[in-house]
Amino acid sequence: MLLDVRTYKALPGRVPAQLELYKKYAYPVQLRYMGEPLCYAVAESGDLNTFTHVWVYASAADREAKRAKMAADPDWKVFLAENAKAGNIVEQKNCLMVPTAWSPPIPMPKIIP
Q1: I need a labelling partner for 69 at 20 to 30 A (CA). Which of 10, 30, 35, 80 fits?
Q2: Which tens digit of pLDDT belongs to each residue from 93-108?
Q3: Dihedral of CA 57/60/66/70: which sign?
Q4: Strands 50-57 and 2-10: what pairing?
Q5: Is the pTM of this model over 0.85?
Q6: What is the pLDDT of residues 45-69, one digit of tens each?
Q7: Residue pair 90/36 in contact by the 8 Å Cβ criterion
Q8: Of 41, 3, 19, nearest to 89 (Cα)?
Q9: 76: burial class by Cβ within 10 Å (0-12, 13-18, 19+)?
């Protein structure tokens, strides 16, 4: 199992606008290819103006295949264009992680067509 932990930093005060843009354009596409995320969260303390989402994959090959299909989808290209136009994001961090042997079970995501 592979966890794809993605943290984004937005310009101050722009997290709500970014989340709305994401919800409208990106989330429906991601659900079709990657399924539901393990979590999607907004910082309440610490590094403010950030949000993190965690995606679950069976393996690195599974992640690569799903993301390649998503990248080829015309609706994903619309999101990328709208995201660039909005200019809300100033930083992205991506960390691929594997659960420990004694981690609670993490379910595989449900794909939503």
Answers
A1: 10
A2: 999 999 999 999 998 9
A3: positive
A4: antiparallel
A5: yes
A6: 999 999 999 999 999 999 999 999 9
A7: no
A8: 19
A9: buried
